[in-house]
Amino acid sequence: MTMDRQKVVDLCKASLEDVMVGNDEKGVQNGKDFYKFFFTNYPDLRVYFKGAEKYTADDVQKFCRFAKQGQRILLSVHTVVRLYTDEAVFLGHIRETVNRHRQYKMDPALWLAFFTVFTGFLADRGSLTDEQRAAWMQLGKDFDAECQRHLKENDLPHV
Ligand code: HEM
Q1: Cα(159)–Cα(148) distance, rounded to whole angstroms?
Q2: Is residue 134 assigned to a domain?
Q3: Strand locations in the chain, DSSP E?
Q4: Over the stretch 14-68, which tens digit does the pLDDT of each residue have?
Q5: How many domains does the chain have?
Q6: ipTM
Q7: How far apart are CA 135 and CA 4, in angstroms?
Q8: Are 111 and 147 in contact (CB under 8 A)?
Q9: Mean of the pLDDT values across residues 131-148?
Q10: Which of 46, 74, 97, 146 sits a CA distance of 20 to 30 A from 107?
């Protein structure tokens, strides 16, 4: 069953309350925590992070690269959620995200897989309700559809 887009936004925003962006200690730690979870639970995906292919959670914690990258990814996720009710801008933001990842030659299946990773992170940090997870998966499906459409249009590998 498809949820109303505003409802998806409300549910996703509520699930992000504890992982706000910010340049204070808590905000910076939120971003690092995502990469600590990511690299610990999906070590094979570190291959895309040049120079950090063997990083452990402790390395992520130590290096300023992931303080910065943590903010970038969190900011992008918070933005995507807030744009879900503004379709043209939502889709434009996604295409630009795909363009910026072209250099990493990612497996195109990872665009959808990201939402399993991210909801896993949210669940690991606290409580993610079934309804919130469903909202993330609906958004993720629409996000992925635009990624694949854009990749195809540009003759790049897609699923
Ligand atoms: C940057 C991989 C999904 C947003 C990067 C970088 C890599 C990467 C390797 C460069 C960072 C570095 O080397 O330090 C991946 C992989 C993904 C994924 C493997 C899927 C599993 C996403 C998604 C978003 C996103 C879904 C947005 C919602 C960003 C942003 C940057 C970035 C904002 C900063 C650089 C820039 O904006 O050009 N990503 N990414 N990524 N990623 Fe991803």
Answers
A1: 6
A2: yes
A3: none
A4: 999 999 999 999 999 999 999 999 999 999 999 999 999 999 999 999 999 999 9
A5: 1
A6: 0.96
A7: 9
A8: yes
A9: 98
A10: 74
